[in-house]
Design brief:
The complex is a heterodimer of chains A (318) and B (370).
Chain A (H helix, E strand, L loop, with lengths): L2 E12 L2 E12 L3 E5 L6 H8 L7 E6 L2 E2 L4 H4 L3 E4 L11 H10 L6 H10 L15 H12 L6 E5 L7 H17 L3 E5 L3 H7 L2 E6 L2 E7 H7 L2 E7 L2 H9 L5 E4 L5 E6 L1 H13 L4 E7 L3 H9 L18
Parallel strand pairs in A: 3-8, 3-9, 6-7, 7-8
Antiparallel strand pairs in A: 1-2, 1-4, 4-5, 9-10, 11-13, 11-14, 12-13
Helix pairs in contact in A: 3-4
Chain B lengths: L1 H44 L10 H25 L5 E2 L9 E2 H20 L3 E2 L4 H11 L1 H24 L2 H6 L4 H35 L8 E5 L11 E5 H29 L2 H30 L17 H4 L16 H28 L5
Parallel strand pairs in B: 3-4
Antiparallel strand pairs in B: 1-2, 4-5
The chains are: A alpha/beta (318), B mainly alpha (370).
């Protein structure tokens, strides 16, 4: 498969703040690639560079072989995109908004607009003014807008923002359908790891402007060792013992009187011995399935986004 | 090319759908003004129908008679030693004059008017359409319209940025040059339509006032230098339609200049900042200009001392306003005439090119970080 998106050593500073530092990845034609990272990681900056809204300070960003800044008109023929908090003309209806953007791609195809409104479940509200739309409806309209002109690549920045659980479920089904039935390449950023885990063939994890990991999900979930749950008699002491073992990471478990440990198999055996030797009772040591969430936390050191989590401070240039 | 046409069409649709109320209010204002003027006319003249048409020769002859009577009065005052040695004539346009200066000015006015009659050259003000052009495109009407056009243009990019639609607009297959050109062209076309419709409405009103629409093909005379006596080397004759086009072109250059400035501001800021800065400049600059001119007049005693302000962008109405009145052409009309008109057009042209160039250079490199 040929790469439709090629990002090579991309860097970008906003004044003294380093937003991207040598970011490199590619998106193969026909794949669904998840773009992960905490707030401020540089996901939106990367996407804005791909869309031709920003230009990098160094490196290259190409879509379909065309530079996203210097050859934007050609590059933009390949993709449709939505950005976080999509904007529309509030005084126009959803349908008229689509007409506006469709005109920039050639003659307006009314049937395609009707079909797209139907596809995103906006048929009934398509003729209402956008200023009366909820955030979720705007997201759905944004997706319809991105699909205008039948692009080969769909770039979605946090497409589930503002969607209710039903909407998220619907979007997941729709994206999967677009990828499998129409062979559409999808590149999307999201905070929702479960979405990424279910939809993506590959992921790129970005943290503080640098790519921390990139590859197929299956590889990524095994590359950093296995995950164990150890039920112990004394959690505090057990954590102290395990943290002293090289190659092991430990934290309090989510289940009472347990700790969660990440380590390779041989290290796990050492941990078991060390615990017993230290007088910590071990009720059981169980290898658990490691999820994307664990990988994400391991790579970024940032807990999965929750309402209480705050974005990391910007990184000053070295 | 087709993408530019599509963008222009989009701009028309967006402007109309979002700002139709502005155009409706403008239309309503015209109806009110026309109705108010007609009511005034009916009460003042005690008639419902237009007045009888008066030939320009008769008007000039009447003016000469009035000027001769004024000269006689001034001579009498001079002999009696009254009046403090100074007098203000012609609405004070030239400031206070000594009696001798005033008398000399009136003599020149009579000579100019007589020259026009003797050579069968109609002054531009004797045509309804010319008066309508000067009023509609060089006065309070255009003063207000230019501010509305400035406001609309200031939203062109800034509004897209505030609505976050700029991300879609700039990520679609249109170059930034095309986007900027389409926006500038569409706003210019919209303003051109509004100005032409305004001119037609004012022309209709002046036609009533003059008693007839008058000719559009007759020749009219305009002074080259308003401060010098009319004569073969100081008078241009042109068809009246050309004069109207000349005024329209100058007014639209003023509009374009303001739109260029607004677009430049729009490229750099969000909606409310752009509207605020644009309107502050458009309303504040004439005010500052008037204050500076007033201070210079107080210091020097001459109104010409502030004339250089006409060469500063702030006075975008200057070119049309500077077309010399051939009635009462005199030393008091310094800073008027075709020569002055051309100089001010050149100034305005430089500002206009500068604004658009700056807007273009900035927009093509502007990064939309969100």
């Amino acid at each position: 498969m040929a790469a439709i998106v090629e990002v090579e050593a991309l860097s970008k500073n906003f004044g003294p703040v380093r937003a991207l530092s040598g970011v490199s990845f590619s998106v193969e034609e026909g794949e669904v690639l998840g773009f992960l990272g905490p707030n401020g990681a540089g996901k939106t900056t990367t996407i804005r560079i791909l869309l031709g809204l920003l230009h990098g300070d160094g490196g290259t960003a190409k879509i379909g072989g065309h530079d996203c800044w210097t050859d934007h008109a050609r590059a933009s023929r390949f993709f449709g995109a939505t950005l976080e908090q999509p904007g529309f003309y509030g005084f126009l209806s959803g349908r008229d908004n689509l007409r506006q953007f469709a005109r920039m791609l050639g003659p307006v195809d009314e049937k395609q607009i009707t079909d797209l409104l139907d596809l995103v479940g906006m048929t009934e509200r398509g003729d209402d003014k956008v200023k009366r739309y909820s955030m979720g409806m705007r997201q759905r309209l944004a997706l319809a807008q991105a699909l205008l002109g039948k692009p080969r690549l769909l770039v979605l920045d946090e497409p589930t923002n503002g969607l209710d659980p039903n909407g998220i479920h619907g979007l997941r089904i729709l994206l999967r359908k677009l990828a499998t039935e129409q062979g559409l390449t999808i590149f999307f950023s999201s905070h929702l790891l479960s979405e990424v885990e279910e939809l993506c063939d590959r992921v790129v994890v970005l943290h503080r402007g640098e790519v921390k990991a990139a590859g197929p999900l299956s590889e990524l979930m095994n590359v950093k060792g296995f995950r164990y749950r150890i039920d112990v008699s004394d959690v505090e002491k057990a954590l102290e013992v395990v943290r002293a073992v090289d190659g092991a990471r430990a934290e309090p478990g989510t289940i009472k009187d347990s700790i969660a440990v990440t380590a390779d198999t041989d290290i796990a055996r050492q941990i078991n011995h060390a615990l017993v030797y230290a007088g910590v009772g071990v009720d059981q040591l169980v290898r658990t399935e490691k999820g994307l969430e664990d990988v994400y936390i391991q790579l970024t050191g940032v807990p999965v986004a929750s309402p209480l989590s705050s974005p990391p401070a910007p990184v000053a240039p070295r | 090319m087709s993408i530019v046409l599509s963008l222009i069409r989009n701009e028309f649709e967006k402007t109309w759908r979002s700002r139709w109320i502005v155009f409706v209010v403008l239309g309503g204002l015209f109806v009110l003004i026309a109705g108010g003027l007609y009511t005034f006319y009916v009460f003042h003249e005690h008639r419902w129908t237009p007045p009888a048409t008066v030939s320009w020769q008769s008007q000039l002859q009447d003016q000469i008679t009035v000027d001769q009577r004024t000269i006689a009065d001034l001579e009498q005052i001079k002999q009696q030693g009254r009046g403090g040695g100074t007098v203000r004539i012609g609405g004070g346009g030239g400031g206070d004059l000594t009696l001798d200066q005033a008398i000399a000015q009136l003599h020149q006015g009579i000579a100019d008017d007589q020259y026009l009659i003797d050579n069968d050259i109609a002054p531009v003000q004797s045509f309804a359409v010319a008066e309508a052009s000067l009023f509609a495109m060089g006065g309070i009407v255009m003063f207000l319209l230019i501010r509305i056009f400035g406001w609309l243009a200031s939203e062109q990019i800034a509004g897209e940025r505030s609505d976050r639609t700029i991300t879609i607009l700039l990520s679609r297959p249109a170059s930034r040059n095309q986007v900027l050109f389409a926006k500038a062209f569409a706003s210019f076309l919209i303003s051109l339509v509004v100005v032409v419709v305004t001119l037609l409405i004012v022309y209709a009103m002046f036609s009533f006032w003059f008693g007839s629409p008058g000719s559009l093909t007759d020749q009219a005379g305009v002074a080259i230098d308003g401060a010098k006596p009319l004569g073969p080397g100081n008078l241009v004759q042109m068809p009246i339609w050309l004069f109207v086009l000349m005024c329209l072109g100058a007014a639209m250059l003023g509009v374009l200049c303001v739109q260029g400035m607004s677009l430049l501001i729009s490229v750099l800021t969000g909606r409310w900042a752009a509207i605020g800065i644009t309107l502050a400049v458009l309303f504040g600059a004439p005010l500052v200009s008037a204050v500076v001119a007033g201070i210079l007049f107080l210091i020097s005693g001459s109104q010409d001392s502030g004339h250089f302000l006409s060469y500063i962008f702030v006075n975008v109405l200057a070119p049309v306003g500077s077309v010399a009145p051939t009635f009462g052409n005199s030393a008091a009309a310094a800073g008027s005439g075709i020569k002055e008109f051309v100089s001010e057009l050149e100034t305005l042209g430089v500002w206009t090119v500068g604004f658009f160039l700056a807007a273009w250079l900035l927009f093509r490199r502007k990064q939309e970080a969100g």
